[in-house]
Amino acid sequence: NTIIHNGQTKQQIISRQDKVGMIARDLVYDLRQAIYHDELTVVYQPKHHRAGHIVGVEALVRWTHPRYGFVSPAMLVMLAEDSGDINKLGRWVFEHCCIAKAKWNALGHQNLTMAINISPLQLSDNALPTFLSGCVTKYGLHPEEIELEITESSEISDSQQVEKILQEISDIGIHLAMDDFGMGYSSLLHMRRFKVNAIKIDGSITRDVLTNSTNADIIRTISALGKAQKVSVVAEYVETKEQREALLEMGCDIFQGYYHSPPLKPEDCPRYFLSHRHEVAE
Ligand code: C2E
Ligand code: MG
Ligand code: MG
Ligand code: MG
Q1: Radius of gyration of the chain measured on its C-alpha atoms
Q2: Are strands 232-235 and 198-201 parallel, antiparallel or unpaired?
Q3: Hey, which of 62, 117, 237 would you mutate to test ligand 1's pocket, going by the most ligand atoms within 8 Å of its Cβ?
Q4: Cβ of 132: how many Cβ atoms within 10 Å?
Q5: What would the pLDDT profile of 208-242 be if each residue is shown by its tens digit?
Q6: Contact 139, 98 (CB under 8 A)
Q7: Ligand 1 pocket residues where CB is under 6 Å
Q8: ipTM score assigned to the predicted complex
Q9: Model's pTM, two decimal places?
Q10: Cα of 210 from ligand 3 centre, angstroms
């Protein structure tokens, strides 16, 4: 039993790997159950106009595992992508958001958009557009009130299938936003291939806006592109007033981040919407 890594024996490492594999299998199984039994939740992070008022929210899925505790959405999405449950998860989140949106509309918040993240893998599901339009109709929403945030990835850039699905979604009237813009590749190409309504600059770029002049140049360039293409430019990870001011000066249109608000529980949203309806930026 010779020590082979970090003071651990081969046997110890193998048994640790077994344990990791077991936890992953547990999680996949329990996630499936959680979707089925409606045990996931969704929180909503406000997005603010450059003038100050709120313009919409982004839905972010949350899952607390009974034994392992909080599972990050990045992990959750990865597990679901691997296990083949991503369409189920995506549909659960979408329908859940439509229900919340319908409630808020009844309170007079039709003008706020609901942005929902979708995994690029969901775009290989031919039945997705029909599901989306069915859901929108079922809850009495207008498709323009919904925006799908798509992370650029190799899946998106390669396939004609994906292009067809995105076209169908866009024909329904649902808006599309490129998420994490500037991080992947060929992001500029996508803009030629399907109608994009918004681009969200990746948080890792906006985060260092005050200290990294290259990032500042990238943000100015993306903003100019947005202006030329008549597409709104969203800055995420806006944590301070100084960052907001810099991003505003660089031409960003919409701001999201802890400076304005963390993601909110659904029951806290209506009060927030009311109090930030006419807010004017300082
Ligand atoms: P994203 O779409 O880029 O979402 C933004 C992430 O930044 C969220 O993390 C949000 O909580 C976090 N964030 C917001 N403001 C700030 C800030 O000021 N500073 C910092 N440091 N972080 C901030 P979260 O909720 O952990 O989600 C991570 C990623 O998981 C999301 O990135 C998205 O790609 C994915 N995701 C979340 N919910 C869903 C979902 O329902 N479906 C799919 N397919 N993906 C989802
Ligand atoms: Mg997003
Ligand atoms: Mg993002
Ligand atoms: Mg991200």
Answers
A1: 20
A2: parallel
A3: 117
A4: 24
A5: 999 999 999 999 999 999 999 999 999 999 999 99
A6: yes
A7: 45, 60-61, 72-74, 77, 90, 93, 117-119, 149, 151, 179-180, 203, 236-239, 257-258, 263
A8: 0.97
A9: 0.93
A10: 19
